[in-house]
Specification:
The protein is mainly β and 179 residues long. 9% of the residues lie in helices and 42% in strands. The protein has 1 helix and 12 strands; from the N terminus they run H-E-E-E-E-E-E-E-E-E-E-E-E.
């Protein structure tokens, strides 16, 4: 996609042509009916050593309408191709373990480095004994074309834990919602 289609103006007395009417209504409506969006997830578990920030990779896509993710290269990234305001959700589920905390750190332009780029959001929860710890956050974010986002998981249970795999279990989602 790359750009949001502009609406067209009509002048008083102007003859309405099919191409201008399409540009004025159909093209913007088609864009709004299927905006840029991407949902990725880890179909296989991601091992997280205790006390270490781990880059989460995503080997599967739920959808990708704007070529924002690749399952072949840079599998940890969602890259923005159409600037605008996005509804962003990231989430991960850690297995049951009573010790420590579970954290997800959502970063912009970090190049796979847990201290690179900029932290956009971090959420940490105390571990849950007898149940998985599900960490998630949803918020709006203004994004520019070319920016990319990655997710880092940290836990301090004292042992390695593997993020649970699956769609809507460990992943990220972006949906364009406006300019």
């Amino acid at each position: 996609m790359g750009t949001v289609p502009a609406t067209q103006n009509f002048l008083a007395g102007e003859k309405v042509t099919a191409s201008k009417l399409t540009a004025a209504t159909k093209t913007p409506l088609d864009f709004l009916m299927n905006p840029p969006r991407c949902g990725v997830y880890a179909a296989t578990g991601v091992a997280c050593a205790s006390g270490t920030s781990t880059l989460v990779t995503f080997d599967s896509e739920s959808w990708d309408t704007d070529a924002m993710h690749s399952t072949a290269t840079d599998t940890s990234r969602i890259t923005i191709n159409t600037s605008g305001q996005y509804l962003v959700t990231f989430y991960g589920r850690f297995p049951s373990n009573a010790t420590g905390y579970r954290q997800l750190n959502f970063r912009k332009n970090s190049n796979g480095n847990p201290s690179g780029g900029s932290t956009m959001s971090t959420i940490a929860l105390a571990a849950v004994n007898g149940a998985q710890t599900f960490v998630s956050r949803t918020f709006e974010l203004n994004c520019l074309s070319g920016e990319y986002f990655e997710l880092f998981a940290t836990q301090n249970s004292g042992v390695s834990l593997t993020l649970d795999p699956g769609q809507r279990v460990t992943g990220m989602e972006f949906r364009w919602i406006g300019n």
